[in-house]
Fold:
Amino acid sequence: MMHIYKWDSTLSTHHTNIDQDNHEIIRKAQHLKNLMASSADQMEIKEAADDLENMIYDHFEQEEMMQLYSHFSNYEEHKKSHARFLKALNRLIHNIRENPCEIEHLEGLDTLIQDKYFNHIKQYEKEAAKFILQRDFYNN
Structure:
């Protein structure tokens, strides 16, 4: 079963910057998946994996800065969620770099995006975005 990563309203945080980042992360993840599924050039797969990894790191960093700035009450727990996710991301990206054409990495990417990332948005990002927007520190 080939999962297609799609943005839908259940992923909206109503914070423009966070939602734009999430749209882009989902797009980059789908691009990586398409390259891997079509057995594209290994260098192209590695570049797409790096691109996704960098985007997620930047997104989490920005999010944590907004949370600190707005004195988000659940900051520590949210940061721990980021650390757990990044650990899984690092492991997968490392494996993709080692062997870009390994078909089992597609399943790993599905788990990372469909399960872990989408759940992170629903469980953590929505709560943080609501808090940040209520304090209006970041114009939206």
In short: The two ends are 38 Å apart (CA to CA). The mean pLDDT is 91. The helical segments are 16-37, 42-69, 75-98, 104-135. The chain is about 75% helix and 0% strand.
